[in-house]
Amino acid sequence: MSKPTRKEIHNKICELLKPYNPKNHPIKESSGIMTDLEVDSVAVFDLVMGLEDFYDISIPMELISDIRTVGELSIAIKELIE
Amino acid sequence: MSNVLNYAASSIFDKYAILQSRVDLMMKIGKDALGLKFDDIVSATKGKIDGREILLAGTNNYLGLTFDDDCMKAAKNAVDKHGTGTTGSRVANGSYNEHIQLEKALAEHLKMESCVVFTTGYQTNLAAISGLAGDNDVIFMDADAHACVIDGTRLTSSSTIRFRHNNPEDLDKRLKRQGDISDGHALVVIEGMYSMFGDIAPVDEFVDVTHRHGGYLYIDEAHSYGVFGPTGCGIAEEQGVLDKIDFISGTFSKSLASVGGFCASRHKEFEILRKVMRPYMFTASATPSNICAALMAVEKVKEGHHLRKNLKTRSLQLHSGLSEMGYDICADASPVIAVRRPNEAVAAMEWNWLIENGVYVNLAVPPGTPQSSSLLRISLSAAHTEMDINTILKAFSNLKSNQQELMARMSARLAK
After folding, report:
1. Which fold would CATH assign to domain A6-81?
2. pTM of this prediction?
């Protein structure tokens, strides 16, 4: 399987974010996951488990603590895959 | 000048604006669920709010020992003999004989080589997890872990991976994905009974997976010590794997009817952690009265079959009664019974209504709850009687039949 592009990772994050975004806030690269999308801290970690399983990677919690936006999350995942 | 203007334009509290709006919403609906004020606590199951008697069904007083004659006498004697406080840490001021006695009593009860007592349950996990996991170790933590477990992982430089709640297969997958941990070890952290939903871990399966991967298993029995197992050691004892557990932590502030915590280990080398655990070394040790009350309560736990039996009977009674009414309960019957509500505002309104009608339960809302749930969380006590449970059931039945009026009242309050 070829390595996913940033765009593909972004789309996957948007897909997995759906259950945590009942108000349907528009999701952009610059969207703050907890601030703009109002995803609570526990739900962020649930989202991360879904991403770990899809890409078969480990994303340590300490890495997530520094991530604020959807764009930063997709960059972190891309780096872990590579 | 511009600095002055900038200072005036913002505040150090601005970051709490969203939280403040949630609190404002809660206060419009009724009382502050995170700051409830009791006039008095008169027994393990009764208190007073606004001058009225209230049935306590949310205090984690599982064995009801806070008003046990022997525990109270032990605490009073300790004050008479040793005074009110320890005025410092065990590292600086030394240990009282009772600190050592309690550690011995818990180690013997749990059949462990070592036991360390701490000043609070929160500090116990903070200290033990951060002390055990070093730079090269990896912590694998259950997704529904308590805040003190999460905060313990934040005090270390080791990596933390979260696995799906109560799912040994998922842990297995993540341990495999991690592969060999170079110069380090895996520390798997689970709980016996989870505090919010009251669901039970398959500890025996976690033992198998963890040890197959060469890891160490740490179980927090804060809500299960005293409550489960033939001698009250907790879920690991109940499932017959107590001797396979590497580390067991617990608290004095639930079944042991005091304040403090402990971590016990089957590895005698655990003792060295006394020299590294910052939340142990740099805080005042537990007071003589707290320690002596807990020491007496350990004896009560060991012989508390009748307490556990009544607690189980009351749990089944309440669980089946609420189920028959059609309430959505988060787990099978246990001393923690969490009723799932549609959202935070409804749960807050109902919580206030229950208080006004003489029953105190916990309002539990995200992010302190799994699955972003809003809960009316009940914790039962061996001191509850059949009639107490009937009182709780009656209140929940009335709550259901008064839904329309309740929601109308909520809308009116929110519109103000």
Report:
1. 1.10.1200
2. 0.94
